[in-house]
Specification:
heterodimer; A: 218 residues; mainly alpha; Fumarate Reductase Cytochrome B subunit; two-stranded antiparallel sheet; 8 helices; elongated; B: 351 residues; alpha/beta; 3 domains; six-stranded mixed β-sheet; 16 helices; 6 strands; 42% helix
């Protein structure tokens, strides 16, 4: 069977992804020192941890905007890529869950085949929908409020106060970090551990040619 | 013989007591007489008027007017003699010497910051009033801009901290909680210290401390704080927390440990246990009611507007966060283990 190359991840998406990755990892590391400063001394001073956290937060917020503009305005495929279809909800989720939890261990093939128009399996779509449309915007917004408490005091009070804002930011960030562990692990579930990671760096995925192979593959 | 000596000692003691107390009694009487005129701006003018309500709660009032204005005679003001003024150092010598050695002394004398007729101890002055004293010379916008060159959220820090928290070397600091109110329904902003009259009106005749201290035991529990913050009847009021010094030094130097934020933010929850509810009195001074230890560390409703990043984190939330993170590791660890155990199945051609 011959191998073909598919251009799966366009440049803006890859820039967004790695900017996001760098930003989120920086946020997680600095957050540990910010929350537990008497125990963690990774950065020279408390202030440097705060400043780096704030800058990384802005980078993630900016890269989120890049992602949104690319999918919503340029490629106009935001909902197509991220919104699970009726079939995904009725059968796809169960099929994919069955693969991850059972048939993967038996050596069966992944029921989802990634194409530029249908990059994500139904579980990915559902997870990314929650993450990109709820978690990331909420963490970014709560973070922006927390870095500008004085000028946005009334908005902070509208949320219920600083403590509720902090609790929201902290717990949502924990959810994102928890997702990160799962995300990185699942990315290694290809035939080789780097099979799914390479396309996010180069843009191209190598796969065996089938009848379903996309026409615009290189 | 023994009786005679005893009698002499008693007589001597009575004499000493008489000599000590007579001036004090006289001054106490005089203060009232002085305020008959000096309590009325219509009689002495705005420059010489003394607000009796505010003066009465000061330690200076207990000493009486003559303690500082000793030259005043019974014929004042008809005698035409200018009243003498005691120097602050006469009583406050150690503080005066400490202040004289500071850089600040070149620019301001004692009375530039302290009105001797309104002099209160640091715990009887609100953090807001402390800052008002500083900002009489140090313009707030200038200070926000100056601190903003190195301090994140300088505006917030200057609003939530008396200047002397960082610029003096008090040995102890506590969290003071003040009742603030939105003035005139003003949005945005407008949140300012509520006056005693405003709080009395809201309390509906009860003592104002009972707005929070519901069982009137002169102690605010965490449960009472939560009830206050969740009660819709109190929606126009909020509790604002400030880190205030217990005693104030007058050297006015910036402490080194304040530059890197470690003093407040890296001190850990153990250092943020003590807090007080600071309630305004009719004369504008403040009295304190003790608050349950560690109440400001409550996750959500103990003090919803007071949070010091790093040192008032909630332990309960830490555990919830840990459970969430552990949930994220279930897939890599659980699935990963099974993946290793079943790796032989994937060496064959996929089904």
């Amino acid at each position: 069977m011959s191998k073909i190359k598919i251009y799966l991840q366009p440049t803006p998406v890859r820039i967004w992804h790695w900017l996001n990755a760098l930003g989120i990892i920086t946020l997680c590391i600095t957050a540990v020192q910010i929350r537990f400063p008497e125990h963690v001394h990774l950065f020279a001073s408390y202030k440097s941890a705060i400043l780096l956290h704030n800058v990384a937060g802005l980078v993630v917020t900016f890269s989120f905007s890049l992602w949104f503009v690319y999918y919503a305005v340029i490629s106009r495929s935001l909902f197509k890529v991220y919104l699970p279809s009726k079939d995904d909800l009725e059968h796809g989720l169960a099929r994919q869950a069955k693969f991850y939890l059972l048939t993967y261990f038996l050596g069966w093939k992944n029921p989802h085949h990634a194409t530029p128009d249908n990059k994500f399996n139904p579980m990915q779509k559902s997870a990314y929908l929650a993450i990109m449309f709820i978690l990331v915007p909420l963490v970014s917004l709560t973070g922006l409020l927390l870095t500008n408490v004085s000028p946005m005091r009334d908005l902070v009070l509208l949320v219920g106060g600083l403590k509720i804002l902090i609790a929201l930011h902290f717990l949502l960030a924990c959810c994102l970090c928890a997702f990160l562990f799962t995300h990185v692990y699942l990315a290694t579930l290809g035939k080789t551990p780097l099979e799914h990671i390479k396309p996010m760096w180069t843009g191209w995925e190598e796969e065996e040619e089938t009848e379903e192979s996309p026409r615009h593959a290189a | 013989m023994k009786t005679r000596v005893t009698n002499k000692i008693i007589m001597l003691s009575v004499n000493i007591l008489f000599v000590t107390l007579t001036p004090a009694l006289a001054f106490a009487m005089d203060s009232g007489a002085c305020l008959d005129c000096h309590g009325d701006a219509g009689v002495v003018g705005d420059k010489l008027v003394i607000e009796a309500l505010g003066f009465d709660s000061t330690a200076h009032a207990e000493l009486g007017c003559h303690s500082c204005h000793a030259s005043i005679t019974a014929d004042h003001p008809d005698d035409g003699l200018p009243p003498s003024r005691a120097g602050c150092a006469e009583c406050h010598d150690p503080v005066s010497r400490e202040y004289a050695a500071s850089l600040h002394a070149e620019n301001a004398g004692c009375s530039d910051c302290h009105n001797p007729h309104r002099a209160l101890g640091p715990t009887a002055v609100s953090g807001h009033d402390m800052n008002r004293q500083c900002m009489a010379c140090h313009d707030r916008p200038d200070m926000v801009a100056l601190h903003g060159e190195w301090l994140p959220q300088a505006d917030l820090h200057i609003s939530m901290l008396p200047c002397i928290t960082c610029h003096s070397s008090s040995a102890e600091y506590v969290i003071s909680l003040y009742l603030i109110k939105r003035q005139g329904g003003q949005y945005p902003g407008g949140l300012e210290l509520a006056s005693h009259a405003e709080l009395s009106a809201i309390a509906g005749g009860r003592p104002i401390e009972q707005l929070i201290d519901r069982n009137a035991d002169n102690y605010v529990s965490l449960a009472e704080l939560r009830m206050f913050n969740l009660d819709p009847e109190n929606k126009q009021l909020r509790l604002q927390g400030m880190i205030t010094p217990e005693g104030v030094s007058h050297d006015f130097r910036s402490r080194d440990d304040r530059w890197d934020c470690s003093f407040c933010h890296a001190s850990g929850p153990a250092a943020r246990q003590v807090s007080f509810l600071s309630l305004v009195e009719p004369d504008g001074s403040f009295k304190r009611v003790a608050v349950e230890q560690g109440a400001v560390l409550d996750a959500l409703y103990g003090t919803p507007d007071f949070y010091m990043v790093g040192s008032t984190r909630s332990t309960a939330l830490n555990y919830v966060g840990l459970v969430i993170l552990a949930g994220g590791l279930v897939m890599p660890i659980g699935h990963g283990t099974l993946r290793i155990l079943t790796r032989k199945n994937r060496r064959h051609e996929e089904k």
